[in-house]
Specification:
Shape: globular
Helix content: 40-55%
CATH topology of the largest domain: Rossmann fold
Number of domains: 3
CATH architecture of the largest domain: 3-Layer(aba) Sandwich
Structural class: alpha/beta
Strand content: 5-15%
Strand order of the largest sheet: 7-6-8-9-10-12
């Protein structure tokens, strides 16, 4: 009988991203295992377990957040893969998120809202290279679009002596001086929640004055926010699966082809109320977009939208496409599919029920449209998104 590999998972369970990694690892070992898993709940900043120094296992998957943890893992001589990326010069292969398409998705979503002012709220530079990349890509996209991007990154850990209250006051002061309306991308959901809280302190309306888009899509945290927060799902289970796959090869004696691997694209945006706003000068176009977003799931047609224009209905389609870059019909379909994606991932409804609630007359037609736009069936999308 072949030996069962013994694998240690040093991955916390307090964050949705990390839990997604674990789901991906579980899926890999179910399909290609079995593995004997060494796992105990711990926090991201906890010291490595004492037993690790004497452990005689075969492989380690870890979210390495400190040099001491890295040194302990390296001292074991056991094949390891890092899924954190906080220490870029480690002699341990890393697999993580490609932040370029993440930033592109956030920028395009907020630009489609008609926003012309943008900002980024993140972590102190140098604390995590991935957060730095996320910020840099977003700022570059904004500048390429002809705008400027304000940033708030806080202070380095060694300089930080502020309480939560003091930090919130600093973020609120930064928000107050931004031109409005503004679209803000945050580095992750934790920071996004802070920004929404700071908006309340500064008496700023969300999303009318400040639209907020975060990253990681922790549904519990995002729906706990007021208003519920839009967030990008970066598909952590895919990264967990790929990291487990790489570790499997390393345990068989292979050498990594490269030390840092970035996977993408993200699964998409879970759009919630924190970005439900419009900043469009053309009143007819803004009214049409608002009407579509409020009534698309009722099965409305483009002709109904055009007939509502107060001025020059005959030119609304042209003005609409010039503003958003797509037709009225395409926008109706986009909103309906957005609703369908949320229902697929956050409910147990049957496909026929989802089709109806998303505004499609027939389940068969819905399935055809969904596959055309997403390249997979609705059922497959649900399975991939929910890691079931």
């Amino acid at each position: 009988m072949a030996k069962v590999p013994h694998v240690a998972l040093l991955i916390e369970t307090s964050r949705e991203y990390a839990r997604g990694l674990l789901r991906g690892v579980a899926r890999y070992q179910q399909e290609h295992g079995p593995w004997s898993i060494y796992f105990e709940p711990h926090g991201l900043d906890d010291a490595p377990p004492e037993w690790l120094t004497e452990w005689k296992g075969d492989g380690i998957l870890a979210r390495i957040n400190s040099q001491s943890t890295a040194d302990t893992i390296l001292s074991t001589g056991i094949p390891a893969v890092d899924v954190r990326g906080a220490l870029p010069d480690l002699n341990i292969p890393f697999i993580g998120v490609d932040n370029r398409p993440v930033a592109e998705l956030a920028y395009e979503h907020m630009r489609n809202l008609g926003l012309r002012h943008f900002a980024f709220c993140g972590t102190p530079r140098g604390e995590n290279p991935n957060q730095d990349f996320r910020c840099d890509y977003f700022v570059k996209l904004v500048e390429q679009g002809g705008q400027t991007c304000s940033t708030w990154l806080g202070e380095q850990q060694k300089q930080r002596a502020h309480t939560w209250e003091e930090q919130q006051q600093e973020i609120a002061a930064w928000l107050e001086q931004l031109p409005k309306p503004v679209g803000i991308m945050t580095c992750h959901d934790d920071r996004g929640q802070q920004v929404l809280d700071a908006c309340r302190r500064a008496d700023l309306s969300v999303p009318d004055e400040v639209a907020v888009m975060s990253v990681d899509n922790d549904p519990h945290l995002c729906n706990l926010c007021t208003p519920p927060m839009s967030s990008i799902d970066v598909n952590p289970s895919r990264i967990g699966f790929a990291a487990a796959e790489l570790l499997g090869r390393l345990m068989q004696g292979e050498q990594p082809e490269q030390m840092r691997t970035f996977l993408g694209p993200p699964r998409g945006i879970a759009a919630r109320r924190s970005t439900e706003m419009l900043a469009i000068d053309d009143g007819d176009v803004a009214d049409a977009i608002r009407y579509i977003r409020e009534h698309a799931t009722e099965g409305i047609r483009a002709s109904q939208v055009v007939s509502r224009a107060a001025k020059a209905p005959s030119t609304l389609e042209r003005r609409f496409k010039k503003t958003l870059g797509r037709t009225i019909k395409a926008e109706i379909t986009r909103v309906k599919l957005s609703r369908a994606r949320l229902l697929l991932t956050e409910t147990e409804y049957a496909i026929s029920t989802i089709a109806e609630r998303a505004g499609f007359a027939e389940a068969k037609y819905f399935c055809e449209v969904f596959r055309k736009h997403h390249g997979v069936t609705a059922t497959e999308y649900r399975r991939r998104f929910r890691d079931e």
